[in-house]
Write a structure and sequence with these properties.
heterodimer; A: about 475 residues; alpha/beta; 5-stranded parallel sheet; 19 helices; about 35% helix; B: about 290 residues; Elongation Factor Tu (Ef-tu), domain 3; Rossmann fold; 2 domains; about 30% strand; disordered C terminus; binds flavin-adenine dinucleotide; binds iron/sulfur cluster; binds FE2/S2 (inorganic) cluster
Chain lengths: ~475, ~290
């Protein structure tokens, strides 16, 4: 416990700033934007935590990390121990420390935040995890004797990897089937290098492999083996974490012109296939001169900031509501503004136009105003009559959301889904309507967050363990 | 890693490979394809599974050199490996006993009509195949197609072999034969050829399928690169196709979209050729030759 006097002292420490690459420098490269804390900064920031007896922050974390405990270890300079503490509840701390929307979760409820800036929990998490990795101190936990049970995991995104890690630690054999040539899901193909360096995801995957998780890439469940075949051939249970990878389009004219991309395609070309290094890497991407990104979420910001780094003249965000309603994280919006993104708020595209070669040349837009709140409580955007205008542009990136990947449901119709194609589960256990099959992450939630996908997977892993032990459904 | 167990040259710039991929061999059906990535720097390119051998655990692909990735593959030999092979992707061809079925294969497209023809034959159809190419040297799979067809008709654009003319000329003759109505036509080849076939069969109201070959990335429905317009609706070829009703297909859009990376492909191909020591006058090593 910390005495009241010291609490007052601690509350005087300012939040430690995080160094980052200068905006004009970083838009020329794909390196990570923030540099991360030094050891001294981390200790100083850790001292800002007053070690609450009833830490609100822990309730704000979807996986319930013992936040004051790991922060105290940092304060004491026990960085490796801090990382291990984190890993007890969060298999991917280096990832979450970077991409978690902390401002809506742990940091939003931190008591220090009531009067000033909350403790930088995410940055400390990143610091500890990076320290452990960079100092080669990653150790493999002891794996119990094999229980004789095997589990198949469909999809190697954060949900699938978390379930796999938890299940091997319980002594089960686990095989992850991943459709792409690399595991990681959105962490590899969606979130850009400058926000989440791919070597971090690779080292997390490597850690799982060392624990004994078998990862089979290039394996599309439903096309190779179906879930029924997995269950009847080799496996005692299946966890489905196949994500929300089916891009929506707007169904407006000209959408199939050359130069109109889904954010998934644009980001996959650049991140997974490394088109930013074309022709050293073989996959091309159209860089364009004037790029417009349609949508206002994290994916839109990622696509826009990626496009900026491919050096076009102008990259703009077209979003139909106002800045206040932008669903992206504040940090991303801020970084985008610094980097020179143009925000065309209260705008909406109605038509793409092209030249004789079928290449995009312009977007016809209308201006919008906000009306009465709709079902979601947000004010409904309404078209302003006669506000049509043309915006020159040669690459447009649609980022208006993803539906559920339909591959699993096509071959396993007995797994119940809702009207959007998302798998329905029992919230507490992650059980689907099919015996032996569990699910979690974006395939259940639609677009969501890394940490919620991981939380689902953890819950499902626990009930898979129980099911394997008792055989009861 | 996937090992190449056999390589055979079928025609100018056309090679057949057998690749060890037992689980794909076991599952694949006619009409499905794989996506390959040659190496760490490689693109993901789709190729139809032309045949498979469950016992040997191999799949057969037939590839035509058209750009960097297909050149890279063509340069490999038996014993070499391919980094990634994923499949079988796409929907299998819907096979039933239609009656009298005509398979039209143009150029490399014959590699796709072969497994479909074989499956149609097996299902009891009377299979008539029309295969065509620009010239005799480019014709592939003639014997294989004959083996699965009740009748095989060959055309060359330059008249160097078989019927002098286009596959569509021969197809029209078949359709005009009132005594033997055609129940279904399946066309695979260059997009302009498939478009022409659709136009020939349209007035006869004969069901016509085409196997579409848009640019792809993931092949699992995640990116939308492969989208095409079918009867005014957007479809993803990698998960909804690759076969669609040719009369409903917007072929012009497909041609346009397949030219998306025209400039970039040229750069990549030139780069490749240069590194192979075929860089022409700018290649120092070759100037005194
Ligand atoms: C561009 C972008 C930026 C984002 N930024 C953030 C952020 O900053 N913070 C945050 O918290 N969240 C962010 N998200 C959301 C977050 O990435 C997802 O919520 C999370 O990845 C979901 O994890 P998942 O494991 O359920 O699915 P995914 O990450 O989608 O992984 C699913 C995996 O399953 C594979 N798969 C699919 N079908 C099959 C099959 N039939 N057989 C085998 N494998 C299959 C896929 O190839 C994929 O690898 C972002 C999302 C995107 C697209
Ligand atoms: C379902 C499907 C099945 C196919 N089956 C075969 C087959 O059995 N044998 C075969 O030789 N080819 C097949 N193709 C075409 C083959 O994928 C392309 O020729 C190959 O990707 C070209 O790559 P490249 O780098 O060599 O050429 P590039 O230099 O990239 O392009 C050369 C030409 O190929 C077209 N092209 C480029 N990328 C693709 C792509 N990803 N998909 C389709 N076309 C592309 C371009 O429009 C261009 O005209 C198939 C395509 C699809 C979609
Ligand atoms: S995992 Fe996310 S929510 Fe939980 S403590 Fe870390 S940053 Fe906060
Ligand atoms: S709420 Fe804030 S101050 Fe309290 S324990 Fe959590 S991080 Fe520390
Ligand atoms: S290739 Fe990506 S959706 Fe078809």
């Amino acid at each position: 416990m910390i005495d009241p006097k010291e609490i007052r002292e601690r509350m005087k420490i300012p939040k430690q700033p995080m160094g980052e690459q200068e905006p004009m420098e970083r838009i020329k490269n794909f390196y990570e934007v923030p540099h991360g804390y030094t050891e001294e900064q981390a200790i100083e920031e850790a001292r800002r935590c007053i070690q609450c007896k009833n830490p609100l922050c822990v309730d704000g974390c979807p996986v319930g990390i013992d936040i004051p405990y790991f922060i105290r270890l940092i304060e004491e300079g026990k960085f490796i121990e801090a990382a291990r503490k984190l890993k007890e509840t969060n298999g991917l701390p280096a990832v979450c420390g970077r991409v978690c929307p902390q401002e809506d979760q742990c940091e939003r409820v931190c008591i220090i935040g009531k009067k000033g800036e909350p403790v930088a929990i995410g940055r400390l998490e990143k610091f500890a995890a990076d320290y452990e990795r960079e100092h080669g101190e990653v150790t493999i936990p002891n794996i119990p004797k094999w229980t004789g049970k095997k589990v198949a995991v469909v999809g190697g995104g954060p949900a699938g990897l978390t379930a796999a890690g938890d299940l091997v630690k319980m002594g089960h054999r686990v095989t992850v089937f991943e459709a792409l040539h690399t595991p990681g899901g959105v962490l590899m193909y969606g979130i850009p290098e400058f926000r989440l360096p791919k070597k971090i995801v690779e080292s997390e995957v490597d850690y799982l492999r060392k624990m004994g998780v078998d990862i089979q890439c290039n394996s599309v469940v439903g096309k190779l083996d179906t879930i029924d075949e997995l269950l009847s051939e080799d496996y005692d249970a299946v966890f489905v974490g196949s994500g929300a990878g089916l891009p929506y389009f707007m169904n407006i004219p000209g959408e199939n012109l050359v130069g109109v991309y889904s954010a998934n395609e644009f980001l996959t070309r650049v991140n997974l296939m490394k088109a930013f290094q074309f022709p050293e890497y073989d996959t091309p991407v159209l860089k364009g001169k004037r790029v417009a990104v349609i949508g206002g979420g994290n994916t839109a910001m990622d696509a826009a900031r990626t496009a900026l780094r491919l050096c076009p003249e102008e990259v703009s965000i077209i979003y139909r509501r106002s800045r206040e309603e932008l669903p992206a994280r504040e940090e991303e919006i801020h970084h985008g503004e610094e980097e020179g993104l143009v925000f065309r708020l209260l705008h909406n595209p109605i038509k793409f136009t092209g030249n004789d070669d079928g290449r995009l040349t312009a977007i016809e837009c209308v201006k919008m105003e906000l009306g009465e709140p709709d079902d979601s409580g947000r004010r409904r955007p309404i078209v302003i009559e006669g506000s049509e205008f043309t915006l020159d542009c040669d690459v447009a990136i649609l980022s208006i959301g993803n539906g559920a990947n339909p591959l699993i449901q096509q071959t396993s119709p007995d797994i119940k889904t809702n009207k959007w194609g998302n798998i329905t589960i029992d919230q507490d256990t992650g059980r689907t309507s099919k015996k032996g099959v569990f699910a979690g992450g974006d395939i259940v939630r639609g677009g969501s967050t890394v940490i919620l996908a991981m939380g689902d997977a953890r819950r499902a892993a626990n009930s898979i363990d129980e099911y394997l032990k008792t055989g009861q459904w | 890693m996937f090992e190449i167990t056999e390589k055979k040259k079928l025609a100018h710039l056309v090679y057949q490979f057998k690749i060890k991929a037992p689980s794909i061999a076991k599952k694949r059906e006619a009409g499905q394809f794989v996506i390959l990535r040659m190496n760490e720097h490689g693109e993901r390119i789709p190729l139809t599974i032309a045949d498979s051998d469950n016992e040997a655990g191999t799949i057969t692909v037939i590839v035509q050199e058209v750009g960097r990735s297909t050149m890279l593959l063509s340069g490999l030999d038996a014993g070499d490996t391919i980094l990634d092979v994923v499949g079988p992707l796409g929907m299998p061809t819907h096979i039933e006993n239609f009656g009298r079925a005509v398979c039209v294969g143009g150029g490399i497209g014959t590699a796709v009509t072969f497994p479909i023809g074989a499956a149609l034959k097996e299902a009891g159809n009377e299979v008539i195949s029309i295969i065509g190419s620009r010239t005799k040297e480019l014709l592939i799979l003639e014997e294989e197609m004959r083996s699965v067809s009740d009748e095989l008709l060959v055309t060359t654009d330059d008249g160097s072999y078989g019927h002098h003319g286009f596959v569509t000329d021969v197809l029209k003759n078949l359709l005009d034969d009132k005594k033997k109505p055609v129940d279904i036509v399946i066309a695979v080849g260059p997009v302009p050829m498939m478009r022409a076939v659709a136009e020939v069969t349209r007035p006869y109201k004969v069901k016509t399928l085409a196997s579409l070959n848009p640019i792809m990335v993931d092949g699992t429905g995640m990116c939308g690169a492969c989208r095409v317009t079918i009867a005014g609706e957007v479809k993803f070829v990698c998960v909804d196709g690759p076969e669609f009703d040719a009369h409903d297909t917007d072929f012009d859009e497909l041609i346009m979209r397949n030219r998306s990376y025209f400039k970039e492909e040229k750069t990549a191909t030139e780069e490749y050729a240069y590194h192979q020591g075929q860089g022409g006058c700018c290649d120092e090593k070759k100037t005194d030759a």
